[in-house]
Amino acid sequence: MSGQRRVDPVTGREIWVVGARQDRPNRPSDGCPFCPGGLEAPDPYEVRWFTNRWPSMPGDRCEVVLYTPEHDASFWSLGLVGARRVVDLWATRSAALGGRPDVAYVLVFENRGAEVGATIAHPHGQIYAFETVPPEPAAERDVAEDPVGDRLVSAAAGWRAWVPSAPMWPIALLIAPDASVADLPSLDDAGRDGLAALLVDVLDRLDRLYDRPLPYMLWFHQRPFQGDAPTGSRLHAHLVSPWRDAGLSRFVAAGELGSGVFFNPVVPEHLAARLRGLAR
């Protein structure tokens, strides 16, 4: 069945029921579909996007973004030039999808690692184009309301990364420009270079935090492309990991899901200090 939008009558939460995704393949055994010559990348490329064959929503609203032809690369190993190509593609696809009359919100995101559900190791991310503004960005306040203080991790050419003051994840970073920028397409050359440089720096630190590749989730919040902008529509990114120690995941369980109150065993100021100490 194609994706069907439903609303939980008890909580009011929006849910997409996508039965067809039960049949999608996991971890192909006959080669990587994202490597050049593979199913989704038949020709050579530097960066590439395509419509997801197994979308969570109908109407060509779900896309896959390939960061590099190198299967064993990581985002930070792309360097400034390679990372800038990815930022440019994120901006191009955000503008294209946001220009559709049936799209209100564009969410750019990445899941890296089997621990957070990534089924293919090749460096890639995704983009979802929503008909309405999702509740999380709609409810979010301006990131400027979180004073950075001693939780600053790194800065690069007009961008800063810091540990939030009250994160629900054991490893969590906010990444935002110093100036108020509405969306990825609005970034100028300097802004795109700064974002690329900061992502390379921060993701390198995270992989060295436990001396192994860190599973993480990265997503960008930007202004809606249709309708009124919520208060927190300044462009910024969230970067989180479920690991509270090397290979040790923190599980969200009944006490938190049942209450909506979260308990974080990692002190934000301690995490920020450790990551600052990993500067090259």
- Low-pLDDT runs of 5+ residues are none
- DSSP strand count: 13
> Strand percentage, roughly?
15-25%
Tell me roughly what share of residues is in helical segments: 10-25%
Helix count, DSSP H or I runs of 4 or more residues: 5
CATH architecture: 2-Layer Sandwich
- How would you describe the shape? globular
Number of domains: 1
Helix/strand order: EEEEHEEHEEEHEEEEHH
Structural class: alpha+beta
- As a whole number of angstroms, the C-alpha radius of gyration is 18 Å
Which CATH class applies here? Alpha Beta
Adjacency order of strands in the biggest sheet: 3-4-6-5-10-11-9-8-7
Fourth-tier CATH superfamily name: HIT-like
User: Would you tell me the overall average pLDDT?
Assistant: 93
Descriptive labels:
nine-stranded antiparallel β-sheet; two-stranded antiparallel sheet; 280 residues; alpha+beta; HIT family, subunit A; 5 helices
